[in-house]
Every structure is written in structure tokens, then in C-alpha cells.
């Protein structure tokens, strides 16, 4: 029960990594609020409250935070997990609208939630875990998703900036950088055997990651086990960035 008595917000918590994080946090005693753009059909435990909201809309973000405080009276943990993966295509074929959508969700959305939650974390000496990507640490051949790479790379540096900026309030800010994880978002790129084999080959450990692999790393960074760690960037990618 590493999070007994804690209240956590997990953005994009209705599927994939977010759902794994919410489930694991609840198992460890946290009250968890998850956000999603559309109401999910998944049955959650009594420790998990789903609040619909669009990370691109400031009023939605403020509503999620307001309802969390009204329900639980505090916020201890923010997991900035929500994100989108665009169609893979070279830079010169990306429209400005496509670029802006990815940046708005993957980067500005994290800004909106962090900005709104920070005053509450100041009261609890809470923590933030950002979910970036190993694509924010290294360029990969055949992965032509420049807006995604830009957003995830920026989130890595923002983690360090926020860690320094809010250390005086005893707020810890860390970041995980997953490799390829078996989720609904990556499913289109893993459907045929050749693509899956190429994805596996990117990871020296010899397999694609699972949502629980990332959730366990996030649990560590959100718990007192990491009480002296802030500004850390943790690759959770089966060794992909070491190649």
C-alpha cells in the first residue's frame, strides 16, 4: 500500500498506460481520478473516479481539478499521461493543423494540467510524473512523427525545469520515457508480423513493453520510495535508447 491516503489525477486514464497506472495506484491505496475525452465503458474499482474532460480545453481541465478537490479535499499526485500519436509521415507532408493538434495535446495539455494542479501540490508537497517517450530522447530511423518527437522532447526538459522551479515547495517532478508499448494507440503499427518483428528488434531486451511495465516505474516515482529523486528522466524501453 505505497499510496495509502493519497489522491492522484491520471490524465488519459481510460486506456493503455493510463489505465494500468490508475489500476495499480488504486491497488496501492490511492483515490484516483482519471480523465478521458469520452466516457469509457471500462468498469473501475471503487477507488477510481472518471471525469470526462478534454485536455485541450482550459475549462475542462479546471473542472477536473475542481471536482477532485470537492470530492477528496486534496491532490497529492499528477500523472501527465494523456497524449496522441499522429500518422507517420515526413515533415514536409505534415499540415500545420496536424502539427498544432499534437503539440496542443502532448505538450500544451500537460502545461494546462500542471499549471492548474500546482497550487494544490504546494499544500501537500506532492509530486508530478510526466509520461514522455524514448522518441523524446533519441531519433529513430523510420519513425517520422516530428510533432510527436518535438512534444516529447520538450516534456523531458520541462520536467527538469519544473523540478528546479518547485523544489522549494518540496514538489518532486520526474519523467518516464517508454519505448513501444502494447496499447490501442500502437496497435495499428504492430498488426502485421514484419512490423512487429521490427519493433521487437528495436528493444535489446527482446520484447515490446506492456502497460504494467510503465505503471510500475511510475508507481516508484510517485511513492515515498523515491522521496529524494526529482528531475529524473527514466527510460522504460527495454534498452532501446542504448542502441
From TrEMBL:
It comes from the Archaea. Keywords: Oxidoreductase. The keyword Oxidoreductase applies. Its EC number is 1.1.1.100. One of its GO terms (molecular function) is 3-oxoacyl-[acyl-carrier-protein] reductase (NADPH) activity. SUPFAM superfamilies: NAD(P)-binding Rossmann-fold domains. InterPro entries: NAD(P)-bd_dom_sf (IPR036291), Sc_DH/Rdtase_CS (IPR020904), SDR_fam (IPR002347). Pfam families: adh_short_C2. PANTHER family: SHORT-CHAIN DEHYDROGENASES/REDUCTASES FAMILY MEMBER (PTHR42760). Belongs to the short-chain dehydrogenases/reductases (SDR) family. This is 3-oxoacyl-(Acyl-carrier-protein) reductase FabG. The lineage of its organism: Archaea, Nitrososphaerota, Nitrososphaeria, Nitrosotaleales, Nitrosotaleaceae.
Amino acid at each position: 500500500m505505497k499510496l495509502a491516503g493519497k489522491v492522484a489525477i491520471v490524465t488519459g486514464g481510460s486506456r493503455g498506460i493510463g489505465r494500468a497506472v490508475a489500476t495499480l495506484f488504486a491497488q496501492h491505496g490511492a483515490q484516483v481520478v482519471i480523465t478521458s475525452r469520452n466516457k469509457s465503458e471500462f468498469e473501475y474499482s471503487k477507488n477510481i473516479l472518471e471525469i470526462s474532460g478534454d485536455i485541450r480545453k482550459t475549462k475542462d481541465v479546471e473542472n477536473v481539478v475542481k471536482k477532485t478537490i470537492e470530492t477528496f479535499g486534496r491532490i497529492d499526485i499528477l500523472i501527465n499521461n494523456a497524449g496522441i500519436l499522429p500518422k507517420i509521415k515526413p515533415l514536409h507532408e505534415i499540415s500545420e493543423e496536424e502539427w498544432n493538434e499534437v503539440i496542443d495535446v502532448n505538450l500544451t495539455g500537460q502545461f494546462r494540467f500542471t499549471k492548474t494542479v500546482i497550487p494544490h501540490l504546494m499544500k501537500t508537497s506532492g509530486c508530478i510524473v510526466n509520461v514522455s517517450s524514448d522518441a523524446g530522447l533519441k531519433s529513430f530511423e523510420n519513425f517520422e512523427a516530428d510533432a510527436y518527437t518535438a512534444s516529447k522532447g520538450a516534456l523531458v526538459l520541462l520536467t527538469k525545469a519544473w523540478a528546479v522551479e518547485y523544489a522549494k515547495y518540496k514538489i518532486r517532478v520526474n519523467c518516464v520515457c517508454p519505448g513501444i508499448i502494447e496499447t490501442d494507440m500502437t496497435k495499428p503499427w504492430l498488426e502485421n508480423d514484419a512490423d512487429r518483428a521490427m519493433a521487437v528488434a528495436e528493444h535489446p531486451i527482446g520484447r515490446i513493453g506492456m502497460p504494467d511495465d510503465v505503471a510500475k516505474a511510475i508507481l516508484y516515482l510517485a511513492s515515498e520510495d523515491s522521496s529524494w529523486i526529482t528531475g529524473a528522466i527514466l527510460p522504460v524501453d527495454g534498452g532501446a535508447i542504448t542502441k
